[in-house]
Design a protein that fits this description.
single chain; alpha+beta; four-stranded antiparallel beta sheet; 3 helices; 26% strand
């Protein structure tokens, strides 16, 4: 059986995580570490440490690198 969300990509950034991008790219955190990295920004939007977040989506065409970059969270691996 094929995996339902086979495509992963990674973004990195600091400060507030652009949560709406998850909806826009139809993506979700790949694992618990990604959830933790996103949660840090919810508790402290001024967090200055760069965080790397791996996300999953059903179709690699859903990923919009230019839009992620516009929020200061560039796609570093797709």
């Amino acid at each position: 059986m094929a995996e339902k969300f086979p495509h992963s990509f990674t973004v990195n950034g600091r400060g507030a995580f652009p949560l709406d991008m998850l909806r826009y790219d139809r993506a979700f955190p790949a694992d618990g570490a990604a959830v933790d990295a996103i949660s840090i920004a919810l508790g402290d939007p001024d967090a200055c440490n760069i965080r790397r977040v791996t996300l999953r989506t059903s179709d690699k065409r859903n990923v919009t690198p230019a839009r992620w970059g516009s929020f200061g969270w560039p796609v570093i691996a797709a």
